[in-house]
Design goal:
The complex is a heterodimer. Helices cover 34% and strands 23% of the residues of chain A. Chain A has eight helices and eight strands. Chain A has a seven-stranded parallel β-sheet with strand order 4-3-5-2-6-7-8, sandwiched between helices. In chain A, helix 1 crosses helix 4. Chain A is globular and about 70 Å long. Chain A starts with a strand and ends in a 7-residue tail after the last helix. Chain B has two helices and six strands; from the N terminus they run αβαβββββ. In chain B, the strands form two sheets. Chain B has a three-stranded mixed β-sheet, with helices on one face. The chains are: A alpha/beta, B alpha+beta. At the A-B interface, strand 1, helix 1, helix 6 and helix 7 of A face helix 1 and strand 6 of B.
Amino acid sequence: MSKRVLEIRKSVLGKNDLLAAELRTRFQAAGVTVFNLVSGPGAGKTALLERTLRTLMREGRRAAALTGDLETDNDARRLEASGATVRQIMTHGCCHLDAEMISTHIEGWDLAAFDVLFIENVGNLVCPASYDLGEDSRVALLSVTEGEDKPLKYPGIFHSADAAVLTKMDLAAACEFDLEAAAGNLRAVHPAIRIIETSAKTGMGMREWMDFLLEPRERLP
Amino acid sequence: MHELSIAHGLVEAASEAAREAGAVKVNEVRVRVGLLSGVAAPALQFCYGIAAAGTPLEGSKLLIRELPVVIYCPRCEREVELPSVQLFRCPVCGTPSAAIRQGREMEIESLEIEVP
């Protein structure tokens, strides 16, 4: 018996990353733009998505959504009312979505029939940061009721996002939300982050959000 | 708390490498984990024993090396280490930069194995 050191340099999430890369290739070949929405629980992902899907469908865009939760299909039922194609991913206790779950849940879908696909991640500001789902863009939501320092408390997820959507802006005054401080904290952890102020209730900022969703994106060659 | 699924992935990948190398025993697994990887080293350490139970890695030691975040500063034109993940600014000149050069890793570096 002899001892040996085996150099391997292998990514721990290599399997997920590989599958995510395959998904990305499939999404891009089908011409569908994919957004991964992440936030803490209750930040308003479903409310934003409800209004977003409604607006997209009304404007003749073909939209679909996968919505992740530990239990219940409440969110899928809420979102289906928009007319968009929706599937619930129940993770049964798992705190994040991974590429495998996405791959399983898009089975049978003709991806080319969609312009935009949203993946509503499990409400969690830690774990979803580590898992690539093959998305084009990751969007982190921050509601005004959560406090301005969330980005400093969870730098990993806000750093990994391309855009931050401030939600529930209609409550900003009541919560004494300090917009400047929140934006400063977001930029501290991600100097290039795009910040969009919205209210799914009043419709504030929805146009800017739509423009962000529909703008041309860099894709794989 | 997703360190248990991370630990399972780690054990799976390391077991595969050990098997391919013809190992009869694994003594040590070395990993490097960036401060932005989303993994807490103590939680991973805790979950490792659970994930390794009943696998060729059972009883092996997990050595975790944490990597600080390194960004590229466009003004200094060099890579600099961040003293805090809460402020993506060059600690030397103060220029903001999101150009990460290190800090997201979650990699198995090496295994110490025993071969016949």
